[in-house]
# Entry
Amino acid sequence: QVQLVESGGGLVQAGGSLRLSCAASESILSLKAMGWYRQAPGKERDLVATITRAGSTNYADSVKGRFTISRDNVKNTVFLQMNSLKPEDTAVYYCNAIEVLLSYEYNYWGQGTQVTVSS
# Structure
């Protein structure tokens, strides 16, 4: 079972930046993909950005050009650099990992970290 621990959330003014980190309990190169999702109050959890084992990235349209997902394979950590933050980016951000074992996909989640952007 993969354990994920997020950090880096907080309160920031609109236009500011934050960097989230997600440390995995095993080699992230053994995972199919990792990503960040967010959930605002009263809304569903939505994809923010993903990065595959091969390094391909994908972003939600709402964050393209502002957020960047990256990873440190040695530290088994994935990052989400968030620039030009907007109040609508306020949400709990969750780290996700997908592991494939015997053709089955397993999804793992971190505990979440709050990001609040004030106007």
